[in-house]
Design brief:
mainly alpha
Length: 186
């Protein structure tokens, strides 16, 4: 299994939802800690983009895939509602991101703390790190974390197209969050 080396931390969802959860906890405590206000407002574009990404990419790449259907059938035979549980895990990230950005964050603080260039840098660094981890994991375990990745094999051109598409998607989500910030501060 792909999880043999890193456990469930091989999955992008776990990273994104963990970052979102910690972000929301620190955002809550920023009510009493001015030092956390700038930190949580500054991270909002990035963390909210991850929330969008988890929901959108799960629904477009995983939920309807053949591998997911097979996994759901296996778990259903054991009495587990895996498809429903997966929806409960993946769907709330997008609305939580929107609520955080639109309602929870102060417009002036958001404008002062958020940086589009720093957010883009975070995206690039995270993508490179995550891809490095899953490639290293593949070489040690001989399995990709998501069944749809099997179609890419180790073909650099297929991976290049996939990575470029994913970067485009997440950068688009960052820009949508930036647009929300601009509308909010207008």
């Amino acid at each position: 299994l792909a999880q043999s080396g890193l456990g469930r931390w091989i999955y992008l969802t776990r990273h994104c939802l963990s970052m979102q959860a910690w972000h929301l906890v620190f955002s809550f405590f920023s009510t009493w800690s001015p030092a956390l206000v700038r930190l949580t407002h500054g991270a909002s574009l990035w963390v909210c983009a991850l929330g969008w990404f988890v929901t959108i990419q799960y629904m477009s790449l995983v939920h309807y895939s053949q591998g997911m259907k097979e996994e759901c059938a296996m778990w259903a035979s054991r009495g587990v509602q895996f498809r429903e549980a997966s929806l409960v895990v993946h769907l709330p990230a997008l609305p939580l991101a929107l609520l955080d950005l639109v309602i929870s964050k102060d417009a002036a603080e958001l404008q002062a703390a958020a940086s589009l260039s720093r957010t883009v840098l975070w995206v690039v660094v995270y993508v490179v790190l995550y891809l490095s981890v899953i490639i290293a994991n593949y070489w040690s375990q001989k399995r990709w974390p998501y069944s749809f990745m099997n179609a890419f094999g180790v073909d650099p051109s297929k991976w290049g197209k996939f990575v470029a598409t994913q970067l485009f998607v997440i950068m688009t989500l960052v820009l949508l969050n930036w647009l929300v910030l601009l509308v909010k501060t207008w």
